[in-house]
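Review box. Two proteins, two foldings.
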Amino acid sequence: MAISLQSLETIKKMQSMIDPPDTDKIKRLPLINANFEGTLVLTNQGLKPLIPDE
C-alpha cells in the first residue's frame, strides 16, 4: 500500500495534536522495526508491555 507524502504529513500533524512532542521525557520506540513478545498496553507514558500478575 502506497502512502502519499501528503498523507504522511497529515498523519504527523494528527499525531502531534494527539501526543505533543516532548520526546525528552519519552523515548519513542520505532514500532515498525521492533519485535515485541506479549501484549502492549497504551498508558499515559506510551506503550508499555503488559506484565501479568503471577
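Next protein.
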Amino acid sequence: MQFASRLGNLLTGDLGISNAGAIGRAGHQGRSRTRTALYEPGSDLAAQWGKVWRGQLDQGRLDLVIAELARHAERCRKAEGNMACFRTNRVRMDYPRFRERNLCVSTGVIQGACKSVIAGRLKRGGMHWSVDGANACIVQRCSVHRNRFDDFWERRAG
C-alpha cells in the first residue's frame, strides 16, 4: 500500500491532493477481512455490513465506519487495525471530493499506473535495484508521465 500511495501522490501531485485510489484496495481488503472476522463468511449479515460500509465510504461518512469499527475493536484485531488505517489515511478516502473533481476512485487506475510506469521499467529481466536507485527512477518516470520532466531536472540541478 505504501508503494501505491507514493506513486499515486507523485502522479497526482499537481492537483494538490493525495491520491484518490491508493487506499481503495487496502480499504476493500480490510473491509473483507474485518467482515469475515466479525461475521460468518458469505452470510447475509456479512454482505449487508459490507454494503452499508461501502455506502458510507462513498458518501464521505468515514466517521461512521470508524465508529462501527471502534465498537468491535476490543474483540477483533482486524477491526482495530482497519480503524487505525482509516484514521491515518482519512485524506486519501475523501471519495465525494475526488468525484467532485472528476477523479477516478477505483484502484484499477492506480494498479494500471504501477504496472505501466513502474513495473514496466523496474522489473525487466536481470535488473537489480538499490532502494535509492529505484526511488530515483520512479520519481523520474512519474515526472515524465506528468509532463513535468523539465521541472524534475531543474529541481535536481538546484
